[in-house]
Design a protein that fits this description.
371 residues, alpha/beta, Aspartate Aminotransferase, domain 2, Aspartate Aminotransferase, domain 1, 2 domains, seven-stranded mixed β-sheet, two-stranded antiparallel sheet, 13 helices, 40% helix
Length: 371
């Protein structure tokens, strides 16, 4: 059974050597680290504040200073990014994530403005699948596309990161770069993961955990970096085809159908903000909405009280990352507002149809009560 529409052909093309070389890593954050260190020994990288901690740690240990930017809608603020590039000559990299798997509006125009610059663009497709938006593009800017097949991703192999680039010189550097301080045995890595999971789950049981994210991130920030950017003693070539081509047509159709179903439910709310995925050629990770803070928290508590999945990811990380909390530019207010408004809902096949019906009904009941 083939992947969505042309998805299988697109993915095959994305991983075809004539369209770029690929490298396998234990984690996508390792791929980001290796890409940065292979491009330049240090620098500054533009990164959305709305993101998980892992890529920030990768940038930090690669000796790149994160320059956080705000969000516009459900994506990195492209206009603010251009302003920073124009005003700070030390910025030599951009992390460009497709947040929650949603398409980036205005991406072609943005690329036209940066492709003549000497800069590394890391296209982060961790929350969706290929094809790369840039892999066939040509310009002075270098591009590395990063995919993740780790825990909770659309294709979940528990652990796998892939980097792809058209640049032969950069590929050669990435292939050969293996910092000794990041090499770890499989058993030791499993032990690190177990301890982290125990710490995280213990933290979530605290009554005050919503108020203590700064202390939690501080403890994680000072943990063994190999938890986030590991390298194996013996590099592995993972069984890529069986994983990458594992998303069946039915899975993608189900995700899009469930997203459309929840989209219709949420559109009944007068204050909701929803992403536009009409032009999306990639699967999406979650149905993500924005609601005013009070309504968002009420719906969050309602779903949690019924034992149903809902999350508030992602936080405005400039508020929490220990070494970079001094970044207080007014433009970051958009990321802080996003943190206060965002909610994520599951649409994957791990929920059977009856479970999804109950899930949808709970959301409908809440929306009716709130109108």
């Amino acid at each position: 059974m083939s992947i969505v529409g042309t998805m299988k052909d697109s993915l095959k093309k994305a991983f075809n050597k004539q369209d770029g070389e690929i490298l396998h890593f234990p984690r996508a954050s390792t791929a980001i680290y290796i890409a940065l260190k292979s491009y330049c020994a240090s620098g500054k990288i533009i990164i959305p504040s709305t993101i998980c901690l892992d890529p920030i740690i990768a940038c930090h240990y690669a000796n790149y200073e994160p320059i956080f930017v705000g969000v516009e809608g459900f994506q990195l603020d492209l206009k603010e990014t251009i302003k920073i590039l124009d005003s700070d000559s030390k910025v030599n990299a951009i992390l460009l994530p497709f947040l929650y798997g949603y398409p980036i509006v205005g991406l072609d125009e943005f690329w036209n403005q940066i492709k003549s610059r000497e800069i590394l663009v890391i296209e982060d497709l961790a929350q969706t699948l290929g094809p790369s938006h840039f892999i066939a593009s040509h310009g002075k800017a270098k591009v590395v596309t990063v995919y993740s097949y780790g825990r909770s991703k659309i294709i979940d192999t528990q652990r796998l990161g892939i980097a792809q680039t058209l640049d032969n010189e950069l590929y050669a550097e990435m292939k050969n770069l293996r910092p000794k301080e990041l090499i770890i045995t499989e058993n030791n890595y499993v032990d690190l993961e177990r301890k982290y999971k125990e710490t995280y789950e213990s933290f979530l049981t605290l009554d005050s955990y919503e108020k203590d994210w700064k202390s939690f991130y501080c403890s994680v920030w000072n943990s063994d970096p190999r938890l986030f950017i590991p390298l194996h003693q013996k590099p592995k070539r993972y069984p890529l085809p069986s994983h990458v081509f594992g998303l069946q047509m039915s899975e993608l159709d189900l995700r899009m159908r469930r997203h459309a179903t929840l989209d219709q439910v949420f559109r009944k709310l007068p204050n909701v903000v929803l992403p536009d995925i009409n032009d999306s050629s990639r699967p999406i990770w979650r149905t993500t909405v924005r609601l005013p803070n009070f309504e968002r928290d009420q719906l969050y508590k309602y779903m949690k009280s019924r034992g149903l999945f809902v999350s508030k990811w992602y936080k405005a990380m400039h508020r929490y990352v220990p070494d970079f909390m001094s970044q207080k530019r007014k433009e970051l207010g958009s990321a802080e507002l996003f943190e206060d408004e965002v909610l994520n809902f599951r649409i994957d096949s791990q929920m059977d149809e009856e479970s999804f019906r109950i899930y949808k009904s709970a959301i409908e009941d809440w929306t009716l009560d709130s109108l």
